[in-house]
Amino acid sequence: MTEPIEHEVVVIRSGPAGYTAALYTARADLKPVVFGSAIFVGGALTTTTEVENFPGFPDGIQGPDLMNNMRAQAERFGAVMIDDDIVSVDLTGDIKELTDPEGTVHRAKTVIVATGSGYRKLGLPREDELSGRGVSWCATCDGFFFRGKDIVVVVGGDTALEEATFLSCFVASVTVVYRRDSLRASKVMQARAQVDPKISFAWNSEIAEIQGTDRVSGVVLRDTHTGETRNLAVEGLFIAIGHDPRTELFTGQLDLDPEGYLKVDAPSTCTNLPGVFAAGDVVDHTYRQAITAAASGCQAALDAERHLAALADAVQGNRSAQPVAL
């Protein structure tokens, strides 16, 4: 059996939060180890195209390039990147234990959780294929690229209507698709959307098919009552049916809020377990931007650094309190 490996800091998953946490802890000479995932290395931004709203890039930058730059910067200061997953954790003790797929146990004094959240998908055959080519899950990220175009938004509640209203500032028209004949959103949001001249509604409808070869060129709408279908020519499909935080690894150990996101003792990134910190979209169901995730990754790193300093001070204090043999 492989001997456990000792670490000061382990970061679970990459992305803006994980890479920023790694950068800050590496610069503090804490030699962080980042388990970036075997599949989702770099997080959601690796599946996007041009990112125009991350500070410091006036001409924009491709999502994968931004993540590669963040990774390289953290590695420059000594962060160790492991493109693999953590499959189980025991975070309850003073020393945290994390197990990788090979069965190796990694022990750490501090853990930073940056597992993010995943967009809920429609489950259509062309959905992933046309991601970044007309299919989007983030109006704030991608709305600008659809200036003057006709788009469709599949909605759920308030957040979805906010996205539809936001998108109407850029696009030629927004068709809001909803499975029922009335929205669950607040009356204020409904009223705002219904008076917007660019927004129309496709009630009792669902997306049955995404059309297009290299880019989205239209969708097929299906009536949820009659089953009848009709074509709608659009150049963009925004899916706004919610997010699922990736917290299944921590169930029963870290406290979750009613929506399943990790709870932290704001404004800190401290979870309910000492030495465990959380950052990025796994705690944020309000903003969900790369820049806010990076900022919370910085906060988690600083919190972890202070926690380790406090542990070191406590050890030093215990040593100083020992009686001196005469």
From TrEMBL:
FAD/NAD(P)-binding domain ranges (all copies): 8-297
Cofactor dependency: FAD
Keyword NAD: no
Keywords linked to the UniProt accession: FAD, Flavoprotein, Oxidoreductase, Redox-active center
GO molecular function per UniProt: thioredoxin-disulfide reductase (NADPH) activity
Catalytic activity field: [thioredoxin]-dithiol + NADP(+) = [thioredoxin]-disulfide + NADPH + H(+)
Enzyme Commission identifier(s): 1.8.1.9
Gene3D superfamilies, per the entry: FAD/NAD(P)-binding domain
Domain of life: Bacteria
InterPro entries for the chain: FAD/NAD-bd_sf (IPR036188), FAD/NAD-binding_dom (IPR023753), Ferredoxin-NADP_redctase_2 (IPR050097), Thioredox_Rdtase (IPR005982)
EC main group: oxidoreductase
Record family assignment: Belongs to the class-II pyridine nucleotide-disulfide oxidoreductase family.
Assembly description: Homodimer.
Name of this chain's protein: Thioredoxin reductase
Organism this protein belongs to: Streptacidiphilus cavernicola
